[in-house]
Prior knowledge:
Blueprint: H1 2-27, H2 35-50, E1 57-61, H3 66-73, E2 88-93, H4 104-118, E3 123-126, H5 133-136, E4 138-142, E5 148-151
Parallel strand pairs: 3-5
Antiparallel strand pairs: 1-2, 2-4, 3-4
Amino acid sequence: MKKLIRRILLLNLILIVSGIIFFFSYSNSLNGVNHTTLGYYEQLKGELKNKGFKPSLVVISAKRANWHNSLLTSFGAASNSQHLTGTAIDIMVLDVNEDGRMNDKDVNVVVSILEGLIGSKGGIGTYKMEYLIWNRQMVHFDSRGNKARWNR
């Protein structure tokens, strides 16, 4: 009986670890993102460095599969998200200004740079009013071809 319980626990642990690895490798992947959006991301990191900031960014979401986007619509994602076509990237902004805190000042630095890069050629969205820090530090940007902005 103890052997069976140990095997079940081990199997559950393997499944959990596999799920975590899958989630992070899938979420942090830039596979399938179009060249324009990838260019914005690379330019953003370069501009952060040029302006004396640290490019402390984590890709949270890029090109999404339909099943993944369907799950996220329960949490406010658009059903016709730019992520479905690979034109969008969501990033978590860490302490880019190196003041020892992750806050809206860091997000504002990133958004300001993205405004200069993207202009009227794409979307930029922030979630600074949300409750969880994960959301508050997130910035969405895309290359949809027209200007779109939102701040939640």
